Structures
1.
Amino acid sequence: MNILTLFVVIPVLTVIAILFSKDMKQTRLISAIGMGIQLILAGILVYSYLGMRKAGITDEFLFYFDALWFKTLNIHYTIGVDGISVAMIALTSIVVFAGVFASWTVETLHKEFFISLIVLASGVFGFFISLDLFTMFLFYEIAVIPMYLLIGIWGSGPKEYSAMKLTLMLMAGSALLFVAILGIYFYSAPAGGQLTFNLLEIAKNKIPIEMQRFLFPFAFIGFGILGALFPFHTWSPDGHASAPTAVSMLHAGVLMKLGGYGAFRVALYLLPEAAHEQAWIFLILTGISVVYGAFGAIAQKDLKYINAYSSVSHCGLVLFALLMLNQAAMNGAIIQMISHGLMTALFFALIGMIYGRTHTRIVSEMGGLMKIMPFLGVCWVIAGMASLGLPGLSGFVAEMTIFIGSFQHTDTFHRFMTILATTSIVVTAVYILRVVGALLLGPVKNDHFLELEDAKWYERLSTVTLILSIAAIGIAPLWLSDMIGFSLAPMVDKINSVTASIAGIF
């Protein structure tokens, strides 16, 4: 069996095993073992991929496999990975594994919770390995649909409202994507050729520029909604605030990355001429996302809302960098997806752990927690420093690469947008340092907090896994950057080679 197929099969087998578990202890153990195997498998995939590249194998996608699913429409189960896909699979494996331990105390409908969580993960894995547009869209829906149940049943606050708002917004995005995919499909073949959903085959053929202009907004906005593109981001803060801890971790850490990955793999790669013509429009929207999200975080008093608006800003930076359409900025965008996925998952895990003890997420009601919960306090500081871009952590690598790449454009428009986006660094530092001071330092405001205990073993395992990953990228980023860059170079060349005549518009 192809190693990539195992990333879909293992979650399915884990779900089946959970169905036969007898109690909560068995359910947690099966989930941990299943996702632990998935994490090990991701490590093997990264090692094997790097080894094959080192051995001189230059195929665009490795571990390629193709099987016909539906002959009439030429739908195939086509899978393969490049360096970008491998990085996203590794991110997903780490976050899902940490999410299982962050959900260790879930008691209500525990079987159903872990089944929904793992089904969501299987959809994400399937999305990242798919090279067939229809199959990719199918896995996309598998990843999105469980969110309604996970928030609506196990969430908090106005959970029904948040679940419905999230689902309706993402379904609207799915509708736009479906139009784009069908449009691409019907213009996917040369004259007299066979229509196909295969990404590699479509990329070889030039879709007429008139259709590209029509389809690009559908594709980019469809994926952009999941990536919290302004002004379609409003579902994100409410969804994050009402979701249980592990769901927030997967939602912000992994699911939102489908937006950036899909926008790059489908909208930019398959519709390159329209991307060059219309990029300036979406650069303005993503620039607003970056700055608005940062200022929105300053105004919040709830820890989850602070992190949710921070995610709007950081995910906006991903789309912003992709639209720069040069290798340095796009390389930074991919690293930013990995970095943000890890640090926002860490933030939401810590928020859940603190809320489980203090029963409040309001910053003004807390204080002095460092002396009561030193381990969680130190973890919070590390997460905050990664978010504001401290050298030695992943956030610095991602943001510096993005801004250097973005500033390579010499025209006034791109440089102005780049400078505007860099202001988010200062704003991020403001709200991070304010929260660290109010949450961890000063006097304890509630005597009840003095009786609280620090992190348990499963909480430590969850947070340490994420922190080590953040530090590994920050300290030694070249292996990741090179792995991504090798796969990115031919795609960037294609995007720019077919648009030489219009690349100087802005």
Note: The mean pLDDT is 86.
2.
Amino acid sequence: MTIFDENLILETINMIKLHNFDVRTVTLSISLRDCLSENINTVCDKIKVKLDKYASNLVKYANEIENDYSIPIVNKRIAVTPISLVGESCKDKDFVKIARTLDDSAKNLGIDFVGGFSALVEKGFTQGDEALINAIPEALATTDRLCSSVNVGTSKAGINMDAVLKMAETIKKSAELTADKDGIAAAKLVIFCNSVGDNPFMAGAYSGFGEPECALNVGVSGPGVVRAAILDIDKKADLGVLSNKIKQTAYKITGTGELIGRRLAKMLNVPFGVVDLSLAPTPAVGDSVAQIFQAMGLEHAGAHGTTAALAMLNDAVKKGGIMASSYVGGLSGAFIPVSEDAGMIEAASKGYLTFDKLEAMTCVCSVGLDMIAIPGDTPSSTIAGMIADEMAIGMINKKTTAVRIIPAPKKKIGDKIIYGGLLGEAPVMGVNQLSSYDFVTRGGRIPAPIHSLNN
């Protein structure tokens, strides 16, 4: 006879109903390496067939599991091989056509987002890379579900500053083409250092070179659960006790994510990939990383001590997750997207959280400068400087860093961008007015650090 733990059942119910616990995404990673052809129409036809073959039941089965376990699965997504590689084989490198093919397939399959309109250019550009990057603004402006990422640096290769400047210009153009929607195309574009090929979260998901033909990756999120766990212990408990509580909570969340992922992978008859335990917030009250800092004892996100609190949170989440599963991957840690976190929105609006403080926090979080709105007239060279700074943090510290900046067209400091849904809203934040132009336009490659020679 099975004995049920009443307390554990109640705890799980509370995690879901009261503290916004969910499976943020199930992301099917699909290789398109066998879709290459000299003919662009053949490539697009092969992509449709491939996505239909593996993803036709993704939404149906995910919904069945959601009903069986009463655990919300918020997004169903697809990540594909970097499209710069797929389209490079074509004589007519019409990457916008491929973008629309991916977007149409996602709509037909009921998929929320498709990632992988991507290029990896840390050491330079191929013809396919250049063609894809040139197509990004139009591709993102004329599609709804497509997401794009470009990796411009690694700890082994250094930082491609030609790519940094080009991506700054691409971000500006993407935002301007969607000015009527507060520059939303820029919100679907992320620039990476040390990107990972099994990340299930958008906008940076793609199917990496070492990934199998198809795999199911799961992104689990529970900032509200972590916050509630912290509030449940003695306010005078020391930081070691606090860290252990976060680890224990992360352990439970990770186990749930792997259970869902393995069940769905089995139903789809594909391998289970990884569970990514990233505390990805939402605009919902209580589902906030910033509010975790307050539960820890800070008056608000942005106070002195915020970076230390985030470092401890990120480390404890990783330690708890790795004990729960042998297949923790992706990014796993804590995200700090301004527009997607109710507490971060409040802190930025009140001036508690500045751009420079956010940059400092990226040294110890899972990603980087994320969903930050800046004035639309910010020069491309200044945006390039922001990207270069963030890439340097990733390169030197051998970690993934990223930039998802929205230069909000016709908006100035204090205005708002409003997207709704998971993308939320954000105040337009001030940026440093000093010029970066002469530095970022030098071009070339910032060499890799000495610790890259570690063979």
Note: The first strand starts at residue 22 and ends at 30.
3.
Amino acid sequence: MLYGVQDVGMAVILASSFSTVMRLWDGITDPLVGFIVDKFGNRAGKTRFCIATGGALLFINSFLMFKVTHLLPENGLIRGVFFTFFTLLFYIGYTFLNVSMHTGNVCLTNDPKQRPLLSIVGTILVRLSRALMQVYVAVLVAKYVKMTELGVFEDFWLLTAVAATICIVIGFFSIAPKDVPEFSIISKKKQTVKIKDYVRVLRENRPLQMMIVSAATDKLAASCRISAISVVVYGIIIGNFELNGGWSLYTTVIGLIMMTLGIGAIGGKMGLKRAVQLGSWGVVIFNALAILLFIFFDPKTMNLPGFVNGYGEPFTGFTFFTVALFVLSVLGEGSQMICTSAIIPMIADINDYEASRSGKYLPGMVGTVYSFIDKLISSVAPLLVGVVFAWIGFADKLPDVDTPYTTSLFVCGIFFYYGLLVFGSVCNLIAMYFYDLTPEKMAEVREKIAELRSQSNE
């Protein structure tokens, strides 16, 4: 949104609508890519095929989007068409890379203790990288003075592209020993995959339906925490955007410890359903208390060593608001991590359940059916934020760190930063009530798959 408004030449509503349309396009491409992977990917290795294709498309198209668009003539149509075309291709690559995650988790292991462990490792790496990126963005904003300066986007792209490429190469070679047909099929007979299987899977697979409800509402809440909202909360309400980077790093590390205990101890022993229920209650309680903290105490007194607070005063000791928000943020973020990190092993379990029920391993299809619905719902996030900004008087320009504080910005920032997380977690609790893949049920599923493979080999 920020780049679209500043450098492509879009209005705020158009930029937020653009993000929504692209998320919808991303969702539309999911079933098609999943179908291609399940139908043609076994010979080449489904996961490596997705990693290589997705990684190349992401690198090339993101380079053209953020390094070339602003060099074109200052004509809204020319820049807009160029940026739109390569964004469409970018999201196809994003879809391939997402499918690799679903196919990879299925073929790596079906051990109920190992699948949560894989999610723990993955979540730790992702959360740490995000926290470090937020620190880096805060440094870039301090360097270039504003979030909307071109140098912020160019420097941010370069670091992201280099780091992502390294991780993609590591992933490609690491998965190779397991990315073979015997770990992702039941029968030696050629598996027929048809488009109508999508409808059947979505209609008949109740655990998939409930997981979609849970994950999509969480994604909607998380997707609304876009950079523009962070600017409002940290740059305007708290009064110093540089605190965002340091704060995120502190809370993320401790939150990861909570997540590890939650998924490792609960998910591995009592099941993923229990882990999501526990995490959801934590999100509801701690984020509701954080909202009350912002309402009844002074956010500008938040401080950290090496930073100034919202009044420009140097650190002299931790304030009540800082300590209280830190405790609530750590507990809330940790609870949210428990919920989000359970989704990936849940998808792997649902793939096994579908295989035991229909006799077909369809990791690409099951994963993309979920992601299609997930993206369809979460795609409204940028548009929702943009509409609210326009409603409170920011139709032509998004709030920046030098925008004056108003009550409407306070309500907008707190609602999108904390309020929607509470809503998403309430939806989680309702969905998990009907999710029936307990540890006992998954033991039956594994027995059924073993039986089907044994019959096929006779």
Note: The chain has one domain: 2-181+194-447.
4.
Amino acid sequence: MNHDRYDDAYIADILNTVKTIVMVGASASSNRPSFFAMKYLLGKNFAVIPLNPAQAGQEILGRKVAGSLADITAPVDMVDIFRNSAAALDVTRECVRLKDKLGLKVIWMQLSVRNDEAAREAEAAGLRVVMNRCPKIEYGRLSGEIGWAGVNAGLISSKRPQLGGSGVQNHVIGPKR
């Protein structure tokens, strides 16, 4: 797969089918990108499990922090990597080792995180991969919400946005599966 550009349908399919996300590198600091990405995803009804060895056992946004992927017993659809590009390889390899135990389907590497070797290994193991993207931004872009901040979503449409369960300030990409 070409990881320089993703079709909107590929990203939308991932975001519409994922239910549980492990956020590797989650931070309890409210000014860190992982904190507000996690808060946004929780607001979109994703189950998010924060993972940070330094904060294991504590809580971030009311969710208990895991110390490692091996500590997680619940099914996980996606691992969102908030670590640097070099660290993404070890995280991905651990994901590949635990993919059957967790039921893992997707490895997502955050903005500025790209590791082509990790992507090759994950895809060889049957996992879908997204690199150098943020699920919060992609969800907002595909749902039209990002336009509220004056950002050009790159989409032109006369369709009305699909609304989530909590009204006009909650757009969705499409029906969750």
Note: The two ends are 24 Å apart (CA to CA).
